[in-house]
Write a sequence for this structure.
């Protein structure tokens, strides 16, 4: 009987050790898979109405714990709209994406844990526990940050216009202004060459 109890205890100890080892291995894999070499913007789910509280609490946690080298910024994108009430116009700030907060951070086990455990946060946008970073184009279009666009073209090359009145037209690059994020392109319209100025995001290489 004593031998039987001893065997059971040994089996239980082995099971606990196995589970601990599995947990540690999962943790190592998580860090190995998730860690990034530079900061990206991530989207966090929050309870409705908690967006500003989450932003304030998270920024306070970053400051109090000296986490500025892993969590760089937290934003709730806003837009200004005009409301008419009792015949009077009033400028008001409105959340662009209710229920979401944007966090710019190096993704590590520590930063993930801090953000995920901030009161009011219900999770990251992404499959399972794996946050998916926003692309530069998404960051720009959502008004989170004015990220410079890297345009891989040179003067004299052809580009296709991807948005605006001249969408789908092919033109030749005349001038590239990286600082202003503008490009001048000559487009042939009705047998005549016309030069137009476009944003980097409005063209692509062909």
């Amino acid at each position: 009987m004593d031998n039987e109890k001893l065997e059971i205890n040994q089996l239980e100890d082995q099971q606990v050790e196995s589970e601990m080892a599995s947990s540690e291995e999962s943790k190592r894999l998580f860090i190995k898979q998730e860690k990034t070499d530079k900061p990206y913007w991530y989207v966090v789910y929050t309870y409705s109405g908690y967006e500003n509280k989450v932003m304030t609490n998270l920024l306070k946690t970053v400051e109090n714990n000296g986490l500025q080298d892993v969590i760089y910024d937290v934003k709730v994108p806003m837009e200004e709209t005009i409301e008419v009430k009792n015949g009077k116009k009033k400028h008001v700030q409105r959340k662009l994406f209710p229920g979401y907060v944007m966090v710019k951070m190096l993704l590590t086990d520590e930063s993930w844990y801090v953000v995920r455990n901030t009161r009011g946060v219900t999770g990251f946008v992404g499959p399972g526990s794996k946050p998916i970073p926003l692309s530069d184009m998404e960051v720009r279009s959502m008004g989170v940050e004015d990220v410079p666009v890297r345009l891989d073209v040179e003067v004299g090359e052809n580009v296709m216009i991807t948005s605006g009145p001249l969408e789908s037209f092919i033109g030749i690059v005349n001038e590239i202004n990286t600082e202003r994020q503008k490009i001048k392109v000559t487009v042939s319209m009705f047998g005549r060459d016309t030069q137009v100025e476009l944003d980097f995001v409005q063209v692509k290489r062909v």
Residues 35-141 form a domain with the Alpha-Beta Plaits fold (CATH 3.30.70.940). The longest strand covers residues 78-85. The helical segments are 2-34, 51-65, 109-116, 136-141. The mean pLDDT is 81.
